[in-house]
Design a protein that fits this description.
339 residues; Fructose-1,6-Bisphosphatase, Chain A, domain 1; 13 strands; D-Maltodextrin-Binding Protein, domain 2; 8-stranded mixed beta sheet; 30% helix; 5-stranded mixed beta sheet; binds manganese (II) ion; binds 2,5-anhydro-1,6-di-O-phosphono-D-glucitol
């Protein structure tokens, strides 16, 4: 019991690597650098509402410094925390159109990092949960050379680790590096992430669905039928489901990971590829949810097996409890067959 309470993130990662004698410890260091960025972003998110009270005006703060939008701040923080550790050969972020190269005076490493620095950014001003998502691959180009687009555009199944941080009622970091999905809550008193959710398993079936129903008119007929089905009353199959939609993918999926349920951002007649991005939103979240026993697809195909074509490519996504995701796939498929 005592051991669990004091299991820090750093120690947990090192103990996880010990189970793999071939590990060099580099991934541990990389994840530890990431957790530093998470702590600084968490601090900034928590004081976001104080901007006016403390005299920040327009785009400048009381020191005359430029006040950055929180998503740009989070992007810069991730870069600053990760550029010099010697573990990465290249990075990519939602906030940067092109690849982010490691400055030439720093050592190049064997890993590739893709991230969404702040997910759910439209919720910032309303004090609603937002997060950071990250995805890590091993490079495929030769060591010692700058990383390339080829290193970034790998299949999701090749991820070696993925995680997210939710800045909510408390800050929690959830990651997987191939040996279970684990959650660590930030203790604000001494600034450490402590193990709070060991070996998370998503329930096989939930009673929550999360989707932006404002887009109903534009959905595929199979999806319309599925949502209506979830709203019908049937005790045996646990219906009706509850609808929960925060509008921050990372927070919506985190809740469903713990309670069970399905999160959807489908394709629709206005957005044939949906809205969410494959490389730094859908792939890492799918890697985590699958590692917790769940399922993630674009309605036809496993997200982790989609061949990436572009850094900022969008894909439809259905993700969460395995039985719920299978069912929506069936609804979409049957409608396509005209049944
Ligand atoms: P981001 O803030 O990184 O641009 O992502 C926002 C995304 C995602 O977090 C969320 O699930 C979705 O946008 C919400 O979109 P709608 O407002 O269309 O529902
Ligand atoms: Mn996002
Ligand atoms: Mn974002």
């Amino acid at each position: 019991m005592l051991k669990l309470r004091f299991m820090t993130l750093a120690r947990h990662i090192i103990e996880g690597e010990k189970m793999h004698p071939e590990a060099t410890g580099e991934l541990s260091k990389l994840l530890s650098d990431l957790s530093l960025a998470a702590k600084v972003i968490s601090l900034e998110v928590n004081k976001a509402g104080l901007a006016d009270i403390l005299g920040f005006t327009g785009s400048h703060n009381i020191h005359g410094e430029e006040v950055k939008k929180l998503d740009v701040f989070a992007h810069d923080m991730m870069f600053t925390a990760m550029d010099h550790g010697g573990h990465l050969c290249v990075m990519a972020s939602e906030e940067e159109e092109n690849l982010i190269h490691i400055p030439s005076h720093f050592k190049l490493g064997k890993y590739v990092l893709l991230f969404d620095p702040l997910d759910g950014s439209s919720n910032i001003d309303a004090n609603i949960s937002i997060g950071t998502i990250f995805s890590i691959y091993k490079r495929i180009t030769p060591d010692g050379t700058p990383g390339t687009m080829e290193d970034c555009l790998q299949l999701g199944i090749n991820q070696v680790a993925a995680g997210y941080i939710v800045y909510g009622s408390s800050t929690i970091l959830v990651y997987t590096a191939g040996h279970g999905v684990h959650g660590f809550t930030l203790d604000p008193a001494f600034g450490e992430f402590l193990l709070s959710h060991e070996n998370i398993k998503i329930p096989k079936k939930g009673r929550i669905y999360s989707i932006n129903e404002g887009n109903y008119k534009y959905w595929h007929p199979g999806l319309k039928k599925y949502i209506k089905y979830l709203q019908e009353e049937d005790e045996d199959s646990g219906r009706p489901y509850s609808s929960r939609y925060i509008g921050s993918m990372v927070a919506d999926i985190h809740r469903n990971l713990l309670y069970g349920g399905i999160f959807m951002y489908p394709a629709d007649s206005r957005n044939p590829n949906g809205k969410l991005r494959l490389m730094y939103e859908c792939n890492p979240m799918s890697f985590i949810v699958e590692a917790a026993g769940g399922r993630a697809s674009d309605g036809k195909q496993r997200i982790l097996e989609i061949k990436p074509e572009k850094l900022h490519q969008r894909v439809p996504i259905f993700i969460g409890s395995a039985e719920d995701v299978k069912l929506v796939e069936n609804f979409i498929h049957s409608e396509k067959l005209g049944s």
